[in-house]
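Field reference: sequence -> structure
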Amino acid sequence: MPDVLTVCALGATPYREGLALQDALVRARATGETGDWLLYPDHPAVLTVGRSPSEGNVRADAATLAAMGVEVFEVPRGGDVTWHGPGQLVGYPIVALDRVDRDLHRWLRTLEEALIRVLARHGIVSERSPGRTGVWVGERKIASIGVAVRRWVGYHGFALNVHPDLSAFSLIHPCGLKGVEMTSMAAELGGKAPSLGAVREDVTQQLSQLLGYERVAQAPPGAARRWMQRAAPTAETPVESAPEHETRTGGIHTW
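Structure field:
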């Protein structure tokens, strides 16, 4: 099993391109053409809806969202609706799940643990909430996690609120949880949040240690995007994703 995690800060990335890039890298990873990747895109404000949405969890109507320039995407991860946008650290680990013995619960808990450790390094005490995936500061949610699995390669990933405009979450019931309060590192630290770059480095370090990689390699955005060009997929291409607990691909889990 390759012991190198290739990390790429993509910079500004339209959400549609992020989907296509994940699709290309999942295919390449499943066939052994490449190793494991950790992508960090900077997405514009978007809403993403997973495979288990409930009616009414997008609170704003289509006209309001259009006027705000907020697109809505249906995605092949588990779960309900969430927001991505500026000030949020989004990470997509494209990882062969043999590394966690194809144990999806272990995979989710590993992602949570990496974020909990990063927050602790910055003086924020966070924890898991029984029965609810993600990372919480008391009853306030600071990070969302939602994954999909194809041919035992994990994709999609996590979203950690570093210093976003938290009012954006008023557009939705985050993760389908009515009344949940979202928070951020900036809110918990009195407005003095670290930079996205600093948090990105911390998350990379913690996740690579927890997954046991011998080395982390940094790649420029063009190196990741070349896989998309080679595969030439489109965001409209149907993405194979199994129902939860289907052993052929490993299933999906929620935000």
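Note: The chain has a mean pLDDT of 84.
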